[in-house]
Write a structure and sequence with these properties.
The protein has 215 residues and is α/β, with parallel strands linked by helices. The protein has a single domain, classed as Undecaprenyl pyrophosphate synthetase, CATH 3.40.1180. Helices cover 29% and strands 19% of the residues. It contains 6 helices and 7 strands; from the N terminus they run βααβαβββααββα. Strands 4-3-5-2-1-6-7 form a 7-stranded mixed sheet. It is globular, with a radius of gyration of 17 Å. The two termini are 22 Å apart. The model has no long low-confidence stretch (mean pLDDT 95).
């Protein structure tokens, strides 16, 4: 099977999952923590080289404060969980905003290697595509290689496969430059209902795609 080197994860549906289980929307985020760890271990064992998780966006911070605190705390817990694994971790997001959790600042300046650092893991926390592209010079002569150098997410490689849970068929601003040639696989189940077969089915689907990168 031809495996993607880099998989992007959009773990959507936490609030809808909570509502369906008779809970308030803020209770759905912590229910997505174990699925994230299970997915990490599966990808590591399979041989995936890089994973990027969509934590929360600058637009998400417009939600009610109780939800904002919940998904922020869940991101901090997720990083703590990854710190106990063999991973090379980088957190990417707008650290100048008061919405960025201070606990994650040490992981934003460079990659932190835990254990053997077998797999690169990127967390997008308080991420916004406009913020990411904010350093681009107004120069019509720039090529794509030059653009990558100006990205605030420049240490994140091109994404081969993006998997989104929750049934929504949109990228929601997910790394617009790195995802330009990504294959996009949608799972209708909500993220807290993650099953290993979700990943396996996505990889089987990816294996059957015609990857040309525009060529």
């Amino acid at each position: 099977m031809r495996l993607p080197k880099h998989i992007g994860i959009i773990p959507d549906g936490n609030r809808r999952w909570a509502t369906n289980h008779g809970l308030t929307k803020d209770k759905g985020y912590d229910s997505g923590l174990n699925p994230g760890l299970i997915l990490f271990k599966l990808c590591k064992n399979i041989g995936i080289k890089e994973l990027t998780y969509y934590g929360f966006t600058t637009d998400n911070t417009k939600r009610p404060s109780i939800q904002r605190k919940a998904f922020t705390n869940s991101c901090v817990k997720a990083v703590e969980m990854i710190s106990n694994q063999d991973a090379s971790l980088l957190v990417v997001g707008n650290t100048n905003s008061k919405m960025f959790p201070k606990e994650l600042l040490p992981y934003t300046e460079h990659r932190t290697v835990f254990g053997k650092g077998d797999i690169k893991v990127n967390f997008l926390v308080n991420y916004g595509w406009e913020w990411d592209l904010g350093n681009l010079p107004q120069d019509n002569n720039m090529n794509r290689k030059t653009i990558v150098d100006y990205l605030k997410s420049n240490d994140i490689s091109r994404i081969d496969l993006i998997i989104r849970w929750g049934g929504r068929r949109r990228l929601s601003g997910f790394l617009p430059v790195q995802s330009v040639y990504s294959d996009f696989y949608v799972i209708d189940d909500y993220w807290p209902d993650f099953k290993p077969e979700h990943l396996h089915n996505a990889l089987k689907w990816y294996n059957n795609q015609d990857i040309t990168l525009g060529g």
